[in-house]
Amino acid sequence: MSSWTTGLDIAYRALQAEQQAIDVVNHNIANANTPGYSRQVANMATTQPAAVISLTGEIGQMGTGVRVTHIERQRSSFTDLQIRDENYSLGQWEKTRDALQQVEVVFNEPSDAGLNSLMSRFWQSWQDLTNSPQDAGARRALVEQADSLAVSVNRVYSQLTSIQNDTDNQIKLKTDSVNQIAQQVASLNVKISQAEQMGLRANDLRDQRDLLIDDLSRVVRLSYYETADGAVNIFLGSHTLVVKDRVDALANGIDVNGFATVTWDSDGSPVSITDGELYGLQQARDVDVPAVMNDLDALASGLITRINALHTAGFGLDNTTNLNFFNGTGASTIAVNPTLKSNPEKVATASAANSIGDNSVALGISGLQTTLTMSGNTSTFGQFFASMMSRLGVDSQRADMMANNQKLLVDHLKRQRETLSGVSLDEETTKLIEYQRAYEAAARVINVVDEMLDLLINRVGLVGR
Amino acid sequence: MRVTNRMLTETTLTNLNSNRERLDRLQDQLTSSQRISNPSDDPIGISSALEFRSTISEIDQYLRNVDAANSWLGATDTALGAVNDTLHRARELAVQGANDTLSADDRQSIVTEVSNLIEATIGRANSTYAGQYIFAGVKVGTTPFSPVGNPPTAITYNGDGGAIARQINNQATMVVNSTGNTVFGPVFTALIGLRDALTSGSAGAVAATILDIDGALNSVISARAQAGARMNRLVGEQNRLESLKLDLAGLLSKIQDVDITSAISEFALQQSVYEAALAAGAKAITPSLLDYLK
Each residue of B9-19: pLDDT tens digit? Predict the structure, then answer.
């Protein structure tokens, strides 16, 4: 049997449902630009139908209207997984690229101020000295040129050390940010579980958590799964980072070089870091930058040993002999012997005492420019430096290419996610109109029922009055 | 496929950015006229560029060394040329002096001239180039020839037999000095012998010195010929170095410098692509259904 109230009830429920749907649309529009937001859809379904017995005794069902069953988040966990799988590499290559590009800037090649030019000018000064070994000006020029070469090598080396230290600091900051993210995921886990145990869908909280996991996947390679109560457990390697509301925090130890290691705070064991920004930073600090530093060290120590071997055997204008030209042992310590800096006449050019015109030692030293002295006597100092720059260029170019490719891939996947989860204003506007019209129609139904009741109550029964 | 507003804006932004990046890079190349500003711009090219730069600066230096060697040899040639003339004059005087009919006065004036020639030759033998004695071996700071007695009875050599070399290319050095002793020893012997013979008044003794003078001339001529041959070799070396430098500069420019014509046209092309992207972006982002609803 259908009652008067049934009609009003259906219309009322319709008003409510459309109202709710409009609220969802409103929420979508409001969050069209919110990072990590997934659009939501109000799922509508018919309410429980009422059983009716017809006059002929058949039992049937009568519709009772509409309700919003749940508000659904449009999200693909598979696309999330894909994005996170590519995010590790993106983070890693970006960090490697950043470090190598800084190294390139430090060397400033090719330019007239780079080490290559300084070395050329240093050798030229030796050659000039072979032309006039007794000339005080040529001696002064050589000592100054040698000094600016040595100081530049020191400077480049110390700038490389700074890059290493910056990278080390970033590792500490990234460790902190992993802990912060883990903490936030843990607290969202609690909120989501609580909400969903009450039968609610924690759409917005899940968006926030997914955004955090996206961020985390850039920093370090992780694995995760969702438990039945809606919490997400996160692992780094085989070690848990987040289990429901509990966090195993990371900490920084100190390695033999005084650099930060990444360990588990609970037991001090090392964290397995295979990809991500942390890995890229570690590689830059422990492999990429030190490789360049070692090469520079080899170059400096080669210059020191080779030049000193000839110089100590030679004689200066005042017959001084057995003096080193360069002090120090490597790139950080190479320096022109201070005795020579204050007394350039002591620079050894002759192979015997009292032979001021004898330039044979100076010729020998300037000849080192074209001698195969480096890499097991297979390349000159200049060639060694050129191939060092070439290798740096290859590494930096590769890191840049990998980072760009990875960015394209991640962008593509994000577009894919946006296709499903993004808010389209056109779509929401259309829905708004759709729900508005339905709301208007439901209101109209109330009007009709009202008029029918009016007819029945106020205008029926006037017969014979 | 659903296309959302954010996709449109992000696509537009990404495209504008990458266009802007390319434009920026081209602009950088054009303004610096360098194709390589970092090793990663061309890792293979950077190695060649650096080596070519070093080699070019080496060649510049060898050219300077060649210049220095040339000047030294030029000074040598001038000194020896003058000595050569001196010896020819001495030979004429010797022929005159060998004549028995000369008066004592005439003979005395010849002696005076020969004494002057000896003085002048000492001066030539002590020639310097850039403050260095060129006939002193490696003792370039010591006056190599000093007369003993007045008038000088002998000339002492204070230099040594050391060789002074110049690096003229990456493999070869060239000795630029002539040992003073070898060249000037016979000259002084001959000239002092002539003066003494003239003073003694013996025409026969004077005639006998002509042979010594010829010997001294030979030693000067051969030293001069050696310096000349070295200068010739330097001219050849200079030409070779200069053409090598030109070749290398060409190669370096090919690797390192921007091809301005193609860079400018690429820049123009990129600029129009960028403008097209801007125009398309402006059209794609603005409209939405809201524009058409009342």
Answer: 888 888 899 89
